[in-house]
Structure formats: structure tokens, C-alpha cells
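1st attempt posting a full record on here, be nice pls
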Amino acid sequence: MALAAILFAGSGAGAQGWEGGVKTGVSRVETGSQEFEWSATSSSAVFLKRVIGGPFAIQPEMAYVRRSGISTVLGSTLRLVADYVELPIMLQAGVHAPFGFAPYVTVGPSFAFRLRCRLQFVGGGLSTDDNCEDQQGRRSSVFDLSMAAGAGLGWTVGATTLSVESRLTGGLLKSVLPTDVGDARSGGWSVLAGVSIPLGKRRTLPPVWMPPPALAVTPTVPPAPAAPGMTQPTGPTLGLDARITAAGRRVTLTADNADAREVLIAIGNMAGVPLIVSSQIRSRVSTVLVDIAAEDAIQAIAAVIGVAVLRPVAPGQATIVFLQEPVNVNSATAGKIAARFAVSAEMAKLLVESRTAPAPVPAVPPKP
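the predicted structure (as C-alpha cells):
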């Protein structure tokens, strides 16, 4: 019921959709006991993942885990082997870093259901394999509840995400295995590597083609202080409907109806390009750009949404992207025309005088 509630809660969040993947590695789970010495075993899991807002994602999993301990006395060995299906429901919080890397932390409950429990004895020429409960004379719980917490690192390459994660678990219930300590709780650790891909068919977006360098035009704009509504970005605020990876000052970008201002800010921050973006920009953009210079990506998006780009004139200065207000040359003043179109004051004055001068009256020849 808890799993269903969380999945339905996240079903309407984000445009990114679900990802599915598999993980494998090693784990060790033990129960407090002076009788058994516990060992690490292989473990594997399948999982789903969905972003539910901001840096947070929900990740339900289904894993196979073996708890294995051995007791050695006078040349004989007694091995306890218990197989479980675990259902962790993890809340993940992560941040995006350059080159597609994303470190994250995760925490959540883990529900474990025991499938079987065997006691395997070898010694004195005798070998047995019996049910745990029959040998101990008391019943232990086939259900275990734990809290899990860990950290990991994801690396997104195209549509595939690779990850490696370490996790600790602490049991909340007693008597989950028939050992010499009846009230002992379980505890353990795991190290798993995984791979995931988006599920379902994603809409293919049209590419934005960059013009050849010889044809690229940078609009002439007024100086930076004159551009209204400027704010300096403080960090990437990219939403769920776009992905950007950066390698040096080159970027790969996929955006589906994303906030254009947020996309521009993210490009600048991830590629290390000083960038100021006007807060008046409210457009949205859909685009695919693959391994192009960050400056060209900024220029392409600006051209698509119809805003201006002011390139820095000296090293260390920021590129400025702002919305140009339309200027009606039939009613604007000479000063506004000169500033907007970068013409001389004399030319602007001539334009104003030419539109206000009365039209010449054609001469009418006298009647004979």
C-alpha cells in the first residue's frame, strides 16, 4: 500500500517520465550472534526511478539478497543460509555536475520477505540440509523491516545512466533469524553498480541548425547598463523538461518546451561562460544541439526565441542576452532611433524630419 501511494503521488510529476534499470554487486547482512560468522554474498536488483520535483526522485526497487553465516566447531561446520526478496523504496536527492556526473544521497525503508531458511551441517561423516525453524524449536519472523541510507554517483551518457552506490541498512524488528540471540536485529551494507534507461517512447525533437560562421550575425544592441531587468544567474535552475551536458566549453542539449531563460543560464553555468540573462525573457524553447560551442548554443537559442545577444568586448566580461523592445520609427524620437539602431544622431534627426515634413503640393498649371 505504501509503494502504491508513492507511485501514484509521483505519477503526475515531471515530464521526464520513468527510468528502468538493473543493479548488481555484493552485500552483507548479519544478525547479532556469537554462534555465526557472517559473510558477504552477491546481490542483484531491478528498479524504477522518477523525478518528483527539483532535485528529488523516487526509486522503488526489488532485490534478491542472501544472508549467510557459518559456525565452525571441532572440525564440523554449520551454515545458515536465508534467501530474501527485498523491496526498498528510496527517496533520492542529487545535484548535476559537469560532464554528465550527478552525485546523490538516498534514504528510505526496506521491506524484506524471507523465501527460505536452511541449516546445512557437515562433519563427522554426516551431511544434512534442514529447515531452520524445525531445528531451533521456535519461530522467527519471515518479515523484516529496515531503514536504508547511502550515497552514489550517476553518469549520464546520451540516454543511458551508469551508477555506483554504497548503502547501509539497520533492522527495526527482532528475531528475524533463528540464532542463539532471539532479540537480535539485522544490519548490513551493500555496494552495487547499475545501469538505467528511459522507459517508453520519447518524442523526437527537431534540431536547431546553426548558420555558417560567415553568415552569423550578432545584433547591435545598447550598452549593458541600458538593458532593463538584468539579473545575474546564481546557479542552474533547469527544469525537468531539458537535459544539458557540458565538456569544457562545448555542450549537448535536449530541451522539450523548456523555459528558455533557465536553459540559457544552465548553459552558461555548466560551460563556464559568464552570462547575464534578462528577467523579461518568458519564452519557451524545444531544441536539440549536439556537441557545439556554448557561445554558438546561446546564439542559436537567442535567434529562435527572438532576443538579442551582446558579446563581451573585453576578456572577463559577460555575454548579455536580453529582450529588445520594438521601436516604431514612425513615432520614436531621434534619440531612441539612434540608440536602438546604432545610427548617428544626424541620421536619426534626418529620419524624424523626413517623416514630419509636409508633402510637397504638385504645381497645377493655370487654365487657358
